[in-house]
Model the fold of this input.
Amino acid sequence: EGREDLRTLMSKNLILFHKPYGVLCQFSGSTPNLGTFISIKGFYAAGRLDKDSEGLLALTNSGLLQARITEPRHKMSKSYWVQVEGECSLVALNALRSGLRLKDGMTRPLRADLIEAPLPERDPPVRVRKTQPTSWLNITLKEGKNRQIRRMTAHVGHPTLRLFRHQIGPWGI
Done:
């Protein structure tokens, strides 16, 4: 067929990087950015994490692999640990699971489960208000609208405090 399989593409064209909080997903401009950590030329992020998000970032120099990772038609899932404000109710979880109508359209159904805190406190801390409870969710989706998880959790009354991507398809932190 002349097409490389995913395993071959991964072996030659993939860097998995644990992006820290506060780092931009670009190689130039404001620092810290990806160039602060990665000096190999020709690799670009396949998908993004905003400056306030942490976790797994895939970088590639292959347009084909980039498309396999980012385009929803390939159904490569991305999983996140999400700390939200308040005690997340079953009603809110079911709304997330069913999909929501946001300003840019309807989101696809996703997997969302309550979990125990999977990460230690972040430095700097997420917030100082110790009296307000928080919940942790494990969210898996197969699309990636701009700041989608943050907008979805805010829509159901539980703004995101911390977002950590721990899985992209077959790769995990």
Summary: The chain has five helices and ten strands.
